[in-house]
Design a protein that fits this description.
118 residues; 2 strands
Length: 118
């Protein structure tokens, strides 16, 4: 399967606030949701509507095909990314908000590859 030239242009011009990981997640989610040979702009836009306010894919659309471990990891990542946006990157506030000790929270953020202000 492949992406049409128009969709490739769209992807190259799109602002990816979640960096390359967001792009990779979006490609995987689009491919999982579509069985077409050529992916067009419409299919990409459909996937992008599943994204959170900062462009992060909240959860793969095919979450039911994942293992429990991977589904939990995706949920935790989406949950913490959104909470981090709400508290504007303040770790101490995030710690209180989600009910985790800061040291455990730092480890969790690192294990989920979530970037935060230091």
């Amino acid at each position: 399967r492949r992406f049409s030239l128009a969709s490739q242009n769209m992807l190259s011009k799109y602002s990816w606030p979640g960096n390359i990981k967001q792009l990779i997640d979006m490609v995987h989610a689009t491919l999982a949701r579509q069985d077409k040979e050529i992916i067009n702009i419409e299919e990409i836009e459909e996937t992008l509507t599943l994204q959170g306010p900062q462009g992060n894919l909240l959860v793969q659309s095919d979450v039911m095909t994942l293992s429990m471990k991977e589904a939990k990891k995706q949920f935790e990542r989406a949950f913490l990314v959104r909470q981090l946006e709400i508290v504007e990157g303040k770790i101490s506030e995030l710690s209180r908000r989600v009910g985790m000790e800061r040291t455990n929270l730092y480890r969790k953020l690192q294990s989920l590859d979530i970037k935060y202000k230091k």
